[in-house]
Write a sequence for this structure.
């Protein structure tokens, strides 16, 4: 009851329109517009599927500026491991060194999906195409002679 009252009293500048949810259909539609062998598109799609299937905010995997990478705060390719769940199914484990809710970091996971939105296929393609250094941003991409 108090939350509804507070919402009514909030100034218009504090209110935001609701966003439509991101679904696998939305992700499929995005994928259909991307070029498979483009380094940026590949990194973008890997980040999209990773954040979607691990149910985390994009900001937990991204850096705000190209020169802002800090291995004590940001995930790198070396923070990604393979694992098996209790059913023996393949999963990826992402060790986030720092999150908004836990400054000491946490692990998030996803599993292979049998669909065009499979995060394993997207991440594998990204890592292969972009050939990342092990201690840099996980979703960096090739641009010119660097990342």
């Amino acid at each position: 009851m108090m939350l509804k009252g507070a919402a009514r009293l909030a100034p218009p500048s504090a209110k935001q329109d609701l966003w439509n949810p991101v679904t696998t259909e939305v992700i499929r539609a995005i994928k259909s517009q991307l070029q498979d062998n483009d380094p940026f598109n590949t990194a973008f799609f890997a980040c999209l599927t990773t954040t979607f299937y691990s149910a985390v905010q994009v900001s937990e995997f991204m850096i705000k500026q190209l020169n802002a990478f800090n291995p004590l705060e940001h995930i790198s390719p070396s923070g990604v491991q393979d694992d098996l769940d209790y059913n023996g199914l393949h999963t990826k484990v992402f060790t986030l060194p720092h999150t908004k809710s836990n400054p000491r970091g946490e692990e998030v996971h996803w599993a292979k999906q049998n669909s065009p939105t499979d995060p394993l296929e997207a991440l594998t393609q990204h890592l292969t195409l972009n050939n990342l250094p092990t201690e840099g941003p996980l979703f960096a991409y090739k641009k010119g002679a660097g990342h």
Q: What stands out?
A: The beta strands are 80-84, 90-96, 106-111. Residues 39-54 form the longest helix (16 residues). The first strand starts at residue 80 and ends at 84.
